[in-house]
Design brief:
By secondary structure, this protein is mostly helical. Helices cover 70% and strands 1% of the residues. A two-stranded antiparallel ribbon has the order 1-2. The chain has a two-stranded antiparallel sheet with strand order 3-4. Helix 6 runs parallel beside helix 15 and helix 16 packs across helix 17.
């Protein structure tokens, strides 16, 4: 029995099989793409739900709130530069019960929703505006009809499943192939984003309203769209010229956190980032990407208000152009008469949408590998192809698990209302990791003292402890808003059932597996006292 429980045998093998093929700059780009310059909720949902709130300040507030959280991840990533990110951080501080329950529920299970969201974004914000815009500018009813199809449930489901399958096949071919493809995705995403800013900053509400009317007439036969939408919004009791509200501005931050909370996501593949132990590199990758993305998202808010006015953004929150919601890319496409501009914007949104499913796979398969190495998931899950250095089995498992979620998301309206549930669920992972960072110097002292961040203190208190407490409190406030404020769609009985049900299933799995391993003479607790194999 003593031999069976010896520490060297607790891991399923002595090396993960993953290799460091991603440069710090590529990881920086990865985080920018993961944060999603294309995510639309802040710009459409917030103006309608929070009259008087200032988008730009709400976005910047979310960025400021995320900074201490991001800094904690810098400390943890340099102390434990292994793939598996949050699971590794939490399990080496709290042990397996907390780490597995929190990360399996909040990440591995809930991020399946992001796979579905990626397909929805690809279809709804990428292909649909592209073909509607081309149809309108070229005068082609056939192209317009194709755009309409991408708004349908059938179009979104087919697009979503193909999107997930293509991403899986790219990643199975080798992580280095993804890194090469990422260069293409960031190039077109930034080109589209800059193009949108130019179009929007050149516009003004007076001319934009005329163009929106013309576009609505061309794609759906709706006449006097703008005035009709304004009248309907006012009739619904919405004040289109509300006074400034500080509270509403603050409450915009959780919407923006949907994007900016992902600044830390590269930590999931730390074992595949070159020089991941470098403090300077991790500051650039995590904090640098956060600040750049936060500024760009705030700039888009300014551009949208410049083009259509804050009052029309409130109208757009509830108005439809025929069957189509006025997401930012559709507004921008409507304001340009150039097929080339429509094509640039469409390709950028298509590629950034597609990238999202890549980061779902990359992050979660690495977490699954780490859990498998600790013997909490079947050993086959962590199998890494020796030639391509990629966890093939984990990719297939995650793809197959995403299909029912894609179907539910697009066919059951009540589930669509849980869209921001993934922000809440992943949010509690980030918050618990902040607490792990705060306690790292005390509960994993040897790991902390050998890390680059150990030199930073305020008096005798480790700086990571201070940052961890601040991040834990700020992130906790965001979570409470999601759980208690109906603005974010998580106060229904269905939401509470899903959130706590997933937590319960994950906890039960952990204790079942731990006892099963114990019956074989293996104490998995030993794994959490060691740094995972590289």
């Amino acid at each position: 029995m003593a031999t069976a429980t010896a520490r060297p045998e607790v891991f399923t093998r002595k090396a993960s099989g993953l290799v460091r093929v991603m440069s710090p700059f590529s990881a920086f780009v990865y985080n920018i793409l993961t944060m999603g310059l294309i995510f639309p909720w802040t710009y459409l949902w917030a103006p309608g739900a929070l009259p008087g709130g200032k988008l730009v300040w709400g976005i910047l507030l979310a960025m400021v709130i995320e900074i201490p959280i991001a800094l904690v991840y810098v400390w943890l990533s340099t102390a434990l530069p292994r793939s598996g990110g949050d699971y590794v951080f939490q399990s080496r501080v709290f042990g397996g019960g907390v780490a597995f329950t929190v990360v399996m529920s909040g990440y591995v299970i809930w991020i399946l929703q992001w796979v579905a969201l990626s397909g929805w974004l690809l279809s709804y914000l990428g292909f649909a505006p592209l073909f509607l815009g081309l149809g309108a500018t070229l005068g082609s009813a056939a192209i317009t009809s194709l755009g309409v199809w991408f708004f349908s449930s059938t179009g979104i489901i087919i697009t979503s499943i193909l999107n997930a399958f293509v991403a899986m096949m790219i990643l199975i071919s080798g992580f280095k192939n993804y890194v090469r493809f990422q260069n293409v995705m960031i190039t077109f995403t930034l080109l589209a984003f800059v193009t949108m800013l130019v179009v929007l900053f050149l516009g003004n509400p007076a001319t934009s309203m005329v163009k929106l009317d013309d576009f609505a007439l061309k794609i759906s036969g709706v006449q006097n769209f703008v005035q009709t939408a304004r009248d309907a919004t006012i009739a619904a009791g919405v004040d289109l010229n509300p006074p400034f509200s500080l509270l509403a501005t603050i409450l915009i931050a959780p919407y923006a956190w949907t994007s900016l909370q992902w600044a830390t996501y590269s930590a999931q593949q730390n074992g595949e980032i070159k020089n991941a132990r470098s403090f300077q590199n991790q500051m650039f990758i995590i904090v640098g990407s956060l600040i750049l993305t936060g500024v760009l998202l705030a700039l888009l808010a300014v551009a949208l208000e410049k083009a259509v006015g804050p009052d029309f953004l409130a109208v757009a929150a509830s108005a439809t152009m025929g069957d189509f919601y006025l997401w930012p890319p559709l507004i921008t496409v409507a304001l340009t008469a150039s097929p080339l501009v429509v094509l640039i914007i469409g390709l950028g949104y298509i590629l950034n949408s597609h990238q999202i499913v890549h980061n779902c796979y990359i992050g979660m398969t690495r977490v699954m590998v780490a859990m498998s190495l600790d013997r909490l998931l079947p050993e086959s899950v962590s199998k890494v192809d020796e030639r391509r250095h990629t966890p093939v089995n984990a990719h297939w498992i995650y793809f197959l698990a995403s299909i029912p979620v894609i179907l539910v998301y697009n066919l059951w309206g009540a589930w669509y209302d849980l869209t921001l549930g993934v922000t809440f669920a992943c949010g509690y992972v980030f918050v618990v990791t902040c607490l792990a960072g705060a306690l790292l110097p005390y509960r994993a002292k040897d790991v902390y003292e050998s890390s680059p961040g150990a030199a930073y203190k305020v008096g005798n208190i480790p700086l990571v402890t201070i940052l961890g407490v601040v991040g834990f409190i700020l992130g906790g406030v965001m979570l409470m808003l999601f759980m208690l404020n109906p603005l974010y769609g998580l106060t229904s009985s269905l939401a509470y059932t899903v959130v706590f049900g997933v937590l319960a299933v994950s906890a039960i799995w952990y204790f079942f597996v731990k006892n099963a391993q114990k019956s074989k003479g293996i104490n998995v607790d030993f794994a959490f006292k060691e740094i995972p194999p590289e």
